[in-house]
# Entry
Amino acid sequence: MPGSVASMNGILCSSEALANAWHPVARSVEVAAQPVQVTLLARQVVLWRTTSGSVFAAPDRCPHREAPLSAGTVGDGCLTCPYHGWTFGDEGRCVRVPSASAGVPPPPRAHLNGYECDERYGLVWVCLGIPSAPIPHIAEENDPTFRRINTPVDIWKVSATRMVDNFLDITHFPFVHTGTFGRAQDTLVPRFELQALDNEFHGYRYEVLAKNTTGALVSGQTEKVVHRVMTSGFSLPFVVRSTISYDTGLEHTLLLLSTPIDDVTSYFTFVVWRNDDFSLSAEEVIRFDLAIGAEDKRMLEQLDGVLPLDQTTLVSVAADKCSVEWRRQLAEFIKS
Ligand code: FES
Ligand SMILES: [Fe+2]
# Structure
């Protein structure tokens, strides 16, 4: 039965395909002087920054007596367990066992088995298994006319599946986003076709007239209503990219990132790239997007369980085509 406890705890966290995917779990700046604990697909993971400057990810469980390593301390790039002081260095190698005589090497199984870990777009990404595909490429990251703005990682009490479904859906705009850009009329969505937006994102292009609530702040224009050419697309499993082009040439790209903490709880963060004149502070630029996110969060946290992934439980219409296609592909992906 959809939404039952069994299905809520099972489908995402037990999926090998999801374990073999990259998931963003923290902001890079958060992994600094102290270890950080994150939960990915119901597994506790410790992150810390090693002497090489890179982030290391490992199960948050000491090989000695299973104390949480995230409760330990980091010094000189090494992580020390809070229980008996075993210390772990680059690549998770156990470099010190305080109770052992000098010169006695740590047991071979004392070394941590790390997870795949990478930093991209100001975020730490972790793969619990063997990555089946690279982290999606965002061209704006290497374009000097764009700046990148990161936002905090928030916890949403909703399944990542329902978040992605929402981020690919424009029909909720006039109902959920009434406090930001949603239109009070024109709920009709013109026919659109799904297409490959580039090598990595699949989705659709569309045009909207949006209320210019924040004036020049976000759109660079002062008209009451502004024309936007937009794309929304997904890269499996849970990455959504939304692009907005204004008539002035201003472009605003959003990466909307949903990571399953477990089947029904998720991390949410988004990254903005924007080719403005950099005169506005980052805080001002993202204030509007944060308000939009808060509107989605308020709605989504009222939805229970994992989004049903079969093609028969939910009723959909033409305007839902993109999220229906993403859901079809996700169901295949999870089975693979
Ligand atoms: S449990 Fe970590 S050193 Fe003993
Ligand atoms: Fe929304």
